[in-house]
Amino acid sequence: MRWACILLPHLALDGVLRGRIAADAAMPERIAPLVLVTGPAQRRVLHAVDPAARKLGLHPGMPLVAAQALSQAFVTVEYDPAAQLRWQRFLAAWAYRFTSRVALYGRQALVLEVQGSHGLFGPWPVFERRLRDELDQLGFRHRIVAAPHPAAARALANLHDGLAVEGETGLRHALGQLPVSRAGFAADVAEAFARMGLRSLRQVLALPRESVARRFPPPVLQHLDHLLGRQAPVLEDYRPPDRFDARVELGYEVESSQALLFPLRRLTSDLGAYLAGRDGGVQRFVLRLEHEGHADTAVTVGLLSAEREPALLFELARGRLEQAAVPAPVRALRLCANHLPPFVPAHRELFDPRPQQAMPWERLRERLRARLGDTAVHGLQVHEDHRPEQAWRGETATGKPQGRGTVPPRPGWLLPSPVPLHGVARIGPGPERIETGWWDGGDVRRDYYVVETRAGQRAWAFRPAGTASDFMLHGWFA
To answer: Is 241 helix (H, G, I), strand (E, B) or coil?
Structure first.
């Protein structure tokens, strides 16, 4: 078995940076060095710093007062452990598309069982490259290590990036080189090992188990067994929830819908990644525009069928957003999707004859509805009525039209009302008698024929039932 560990050493900061970059994309001059702060009010310290803040001489653990003495040109954000957990779960939902065994490991890592995924995603180097590419696109810095056991992969990720260990011999050699301080022990245990003169994990593994059991609490031996695969750690397999909720706080007031497009693209991209992870789609979601001193503006985006492609979701949301009546400047943008039905891909031929630039009908239909409104685009549905004027109706296009069995040929162009037809050259088989409508005052008694005019056109015409009077034209065949 092979496990991959994705270590996210800057998870909390990357989560804040993603929202901040989305909010500031339209106004780059607002971007400033960022630090996360934590601790009591009497002693605030820096929890994490971005690269720009590090260039100012700031570093994690520094008192906020000392940081402000060095520079005032940075922005502080309160460290939020709950937000960090939300981002970790979001990435677990993303990883769920690659394997059914995904688990949160600690507060900054995911472990994935990837042995069974090689058949679908290729050998490990190809699979690893795909994981890295998608994490880069999502905006999360990471380290990835593969090993036979999840605990070993997690420990090796503390020191390595890109390491792939094969077999128990290679695993024991790689683990033996780990410093005790980076091997996953509690801080007091690592300090005790250091006082004993033990600097590497190899030295710890060489100790008699009885000696370790006497000197240290049981979790120490348990951790060593987890690293070597003697005992499997208790992992709770992740299962993605049935709703999506994400928010981008802009930090300043936005009065133009164009300035909301970058955070909107970020939100729909996250929604698409989440849906792909759970192999689902979305048919309805809501954009909530938050205002200062006003109720939120809700912009509902409804689709005729479940979709999950980020580009399509963005286009539909953009069309609705541009038409929304917004009463006040926007301070935050939130996307909520509470109903996530299964996703069924559209049928495509193996050798699709469509031109490369052509747009599939489903996407065109959704874009027209988003631009023109729900009632501007509709389909045609067969109605159970023999009268041609009542035989079809415009209805919401939810899929393919429903037929009503075998019927005689019908013209593609039906006139609004019948008109006299002259110049009939040939009369086809017939008649087809339609005699109905007595119950609603629209009684008709007609004999319909397919006729050909002297100009070679095929027409659908009728006479009053049982007569030989002149034809009335009711429609043209293509």
So the answer is: coil
Amino acid at 324: A
- Going along the chain from its start, the domains and CATH numbers come out as 1-32+74-240 (3.30.70.270), 244-339 (3.30.1490.100), 411-476 (no CATH)
How far are the Cα atoms of 48, 131, 265, 276, 277 from residue 95, in angstroms, in the given order?
A: 25, 8, 21, 9, 6
Longest dimension (CA), the chain: 115
Residue entry with tokens 């058949």: 119
- Among 122-126, 349-353, 407-411, 428-432, which range has the highest average pLDDT? 122-126
Q: Left if phi > 0, otherwise alpha if psi is -120 to 50, otherwise beta: which for 61?
A: left
- Alpha-carbon span 145 to 139, nearest angstrom: 19
C-alpha to C-alpha distances, 188 to 60, 152, 180, 181, 224, nearest whole angstrom = 21, 20, 11, 10, 16
What integer pLDDT is reported at residue 26 of this predicted model? 47
Alpha carbon distances (Å) from 178 to 52, 90, 165, 248:
31, 30, 14, 40
Supply the pTM of this predicted model: 0.70
What is the chain's Cα-based Rg? 33
Please choose, from the candidates 142, 167, 140, 131, the residue with its C-alpha nearest in 3D space to the C-alpha of residue 152: 167
The confidence score (pLDDT) of residue 396 equals: 61
What are the residues facing 342 on neighbouring strands?
280
CB atoms within 10 A of CB 372: 12
Residues constituting the chain: 478
Q: Within its chain, how far is the Cα of 251 from the centroid?
A: 24
pLDDT at 22: 53
Amino acid at 336: C
Residue listed under structure tokens 């380290």: 143
Judge contact between 16 and 50, C-beta under 8 A.
no
User: What's the gap between Cα 382 and its chain centre?
Assistant: 36
User: What would the DSSP string read from start to end of 112-153?
Assistant: EE-GGGHHHH-SHHHHHHHHHHHHHHHT---EEEEESSHHHH
Bridge-based pairing of strands 444-453 and 432-436 is antiparallel
- For 226-268, the pLDDT digits (tens) are 999 999 898 989 988 889 999 888 877 888 888 889 899 999 9
In this structure, the dihedral spanned by the alpha carbons of residues 204, 207, 212 and 216, taken in order and rounded to 10 degrees, is -30
